[in-house]
Amino acid sequence: MNELKLGEKAPDFNLLSTDGGLFSFSDHQKGHKAWHLIIFFRGEWCPACNDYLEEIEKSTEKFANQHTHIVAISSDEIDRLKELVSAKSLSFPVLSDKDRAAVRGYGVYIHKEDGPYEDHGDHNEPAVFLVDDKGNLLFQQKQTGPFGRPSPHDLGKTIKYISKNLR
């Protein structure tokens, strides 16, 4: 598993978006001089992920006021992710990482079919990364299961704290 260090450049990725296009993180960064909150989630089938993404959606204005864009990534099928975006009215980019290139690049945990407990086969687990406007990693939180993610409120506090204390 890739171990990212704070302050280092965050890995680039090019993934299929639910809007039908190819999303290039480096191109998006160039076009949006903002911080980015990259949220990895398990998939459309995960109720805890659905609830979390709905909470994030309700906080998009707060994140925008902190000059922070949201990008969500799952290794789920693009058609299922399109259904999720439609059902939950998600306004931020939702990307399919079917080959798990971004998952591996960011060192996100993968639950395998032969894991210690049964859980919907192979899939990535949740993780959250904060990347600054220069592409440097400022925060990371990875999980080995669906619960315990930082709330949108706590993420907002984290963004505020880091922005006030940057070197």
UniProtKB/TrEMBL annotation:
Keywords noted in UniProt: Disulfide bond, Oxidoreductase
Domain Thioredoxin: 4-164
Active site: C49 (cysteine sulfenic acid (-soh) intermediate)
Pfam families: AhpC-TSA
InterPro entries per record: AhpC/TSA (IPR000866), Peroxiredoxin_AhpC-typ (IPR024706), Thioredoxin-like_sf (IPR036249), Thioredoxin_domain (IPR013766), Thioredoxin_ResA/DsbE_sf (IPR050553)
Gene3D superfamilies according to UniProt: Glutaredoxin
Origin superkingdom: Bacteria
SUPFAM superfamilies to which the protein is assigned, alphabetical: Thioredoxin-like
Molecular function GO labels: antioxidant activity; oxidoreductase activity
PANTHER family (UniProt xref): PROTEIN DIPZ, THIOL:DISULFIDE INTERCHANGE PROTEIN DSBE
Identification of the protein by name: Peroxiredoxin
